[in-house]
Design brief:
Elements (H helix, E strand, L loop, with lengths): L4 E3 L5 H11 L4 H6 L3 H22 L1 E5 L4 E8 L14 H15 L4 H13 L6 E9 L8 H16 L3 E5 L2 H9 L3 E2 L4 E2 L5 E7 L8
Parallel strand pairs: 4-5
Antiparallel strand pairs: 1-2, 2-3, 3-4, 5-8, 6-8, 7-8
Helix pairs in contact: 1-3, 4-5
Length: 211
């Protein structure tokens, strides 16, 4: 039996935030941004809420019908980075986005701003693509193929439309999974200051000859 997937709407916001908060509590990057279990438990959900709101506004959130997993996707035009606001008037406006995220999420935590700037700095430009911003599966349901089903449903569409896809793997385990789905390491890792490594990964659309 396949995994039932639907597109999340505004009414699903709180569910998605809770799901992401639970799924990423032990993630290496989340642990770097919010060091300390108690601090992370109190604060981490605010960043997940900011991400959820951004994707509900400008992208797409796929959610399994049972609410155990979700994937956040953003469409990125050829001349734009995902952190840029539409119709932003200047480079300064774009660079203010990480500042506003930090002020909304955790004003005294410079790492909230830093992670936004660092990931934007390694994001490929020049080709339109689908950006898998985050994918989360609640801990008790990991290993059931839910994440793979969520990703494959979008990659199938990317292949039909000839659209590349991009993501940043936040763990070596995740990198292996994404490689099985056709993503390749770009060759330029992101080492967070005194923190973990992230692997930017790119996937060319598959055709009948390279599928």
């Amino acid at each position: 039996m396949g995994v039932a997937i639907r597109t999340a709407g505004a009414d699903d916001r709180d569910l998605v935030v809770r799901l992401l908060d639970e799924a990423f509590q032990d993630d290496p990057v989340s642990s770097w941004v919010f060091p300390g279990e108690e601090y992370r438990r109190r604060t981490h959900h605010r960043l997940m809420a900011a991400f959820t709101d951004a994707v509900l506004a400008d992208g797409r959130i796929d959610l399994t019908e049972d609410g155990a997993a979700c994937a956040l996707w953003l469409p990125v035009p050829a001349d734009e980075h995902p952190g840029a606001e539409p119709d932003s008037g200047s480079e300064a406006d774009v660079e203010d986005v990480p500042v506003r995220i930090r002020e909304a999420v955790d004003p005294d935590n410079e790492r909230v701003e830093a992670i936004a700037r660092l990931t934007d700095g390694i994001h490929p430009a020049g080709r339109a693509h689908a950006y898998l911003w985050m994918i989360g599966v609640v801990p008790g349901r990991q290993g059931e193929g839910l994440g793979t089903a969520l990703i494959e449903s979008v990659l199938d569409r990317c292949d039909r439309e000839g659209l590349p896809a991009y993501l940043e793997a936040s763990s070596a385990r995740g990198r292996v999974l994404y490689e099985r789905l056709g993503f390749e390491f770009t060759g330029r890792a992101l080492d967070l200051p005194d923190g973990p490594r992230m692997w930017p990964m790119w996937r060319e659309p598959r055709t009948r000859t390279n599928a």
